[in-house]
Amino acid sequence: MSVIEKLAIISDTITKVMNFVLADELVKPDFEEYLATLSAKNADSARMQALLIPYIFERRLTEDRKSIIELFEEKNSDLSKEEKEILSNLQASFSSVFEVRRVLSNGFELYNLVNENKYKVLSLVKMNNFRGVTPGQFALCRIFPMNGEFYLLEISNVISSINKDEVYKFAIAKIIEKPEDAYDDNPKKLEQIEQLVENFGKKFDECFNSDEVITTNIYADNLINLFNIYCDEGIMPAKEELEKNIKQVESNRYFTVSDFKNSYSDFMEKSLEGFSSHSSIYDIGIIYDKELGLFVLPFYQTFCKVYEAEDYKTVQGYKDCIKSFFENDKVPANIIKRVANKYSNFIDRTNEILGTAYNLDSLLNYYKIDSVSKKIFSSASVLYASKVFEQMMNTVSVKEETKQNENIDYSNVGRNDKCPCGSGKKYKNCCMPK
Fold first, then answer.
1. Is the separation of the CB atoms in 11 and 49 below 8 Å?
2. Whether residue 310 has pLDDT greater than 90
3. Distances (CA, A) of 49 to 15, 53, 384
4. ∠ CA 372-151-16 to the nearest 5 degrees?
5. What is the pTM of this model?
6. Residue-wise over 177-186: b if at least 16 C-beta within 10 A, else e?
7. Contacts of 58 (CB under 8 A, 6+ apart)
């Protein structure tokens, strides 16, 4: 099959899936509802096609959470061998933020800021459709692998190099949203994260003499900072310092914390403010899972209390708490197993509260299928190994240092005098060039 024929059959197959979305009696109403939530019910054809791509690859329907492509295959039994192969490869597509390294005659050379891999991608359409995309820019792309090559499904946005900070924020948000994207398709990064998780696990145990610590949001940032200092500088926190920051809430109750609702645009600032900036007080579990790394889980103790209390109805918000832990993708199957192993009444009480009839395996397969089927490290552990996160934090540090130095008077400082910023260096080798 020639390159032109291959591109044609890929494009035709994708078009068939798009037409299926617009016509199928199950999928069409859901897509229309999806458009309504985006205020795009009257979108033109170009906009409609742009919305179809993320819908097809990110939406799951039916009780067993089937993808749109799986539903398409079920209802089209006459697909050719080539079409089935293409659909199988499309299931492995992924969206990320890339730096454009080179523009080729038939595609691009891209660097993925999330998983730190380089890709040569072939375009399914003529390259003049991407006029204006140049090296040095950043692009939000969806690509997929097939027979040792990568193909470009879409470029949903192009961002100027002068907005690098915003791009870094978005890449970090992608890692937090789906940590596995940072090591999928990058064995070296996976190996680095696995080693880091093992090393930090030993340090966590040395620091706290336990694999979990319960405190409140007022003190959680301090504990995490003490652990970070121990990991980075080897300075073991004093026992008194740890005890000072391990506190219990007056009573366990679950409620909505509005501070968690951060957009991509301000999540970095919110993250730097920390849990202690939140107006309400609630319990937090700082847990180290030996396989997946560090998890910081609001209301973890409250979740445990539902199974610990003689009468779980005395725990305010008990049902919402249970549902939040099961429905939150950031709480992996390992955490649920940990609590299930702690309390012999776990399954009976869960079924009683939710009105279900699960055993542990069926519970995990229903609510935590992603973390059951593949290894998903904690976002905190993955960020420790991320270059883009390191670059972003360096940028933040430089900005803070610059802001502090703005208040220093440099007017009468000689080149060879000590720099008034306090670094101990000569002025000419420190703040003078800045």
1. no
2. yes
3. 10, 7, 37
4. 80
5. 0.78
6. ebbbbbbbeb
7. none
